[in-house]
Amino acid sequence: MTSLVKEMEKSNKLSAVIDMGDVIGVLQIQAENETEDFHYSTDQNVMNILDCQSDLETDSPWSVMIPSEAFDKARLERNGSAFVGVLWFKNMGKK
Question: Domains of the chain: which residue ranges?
Answer without folding.
Answer: 2-89
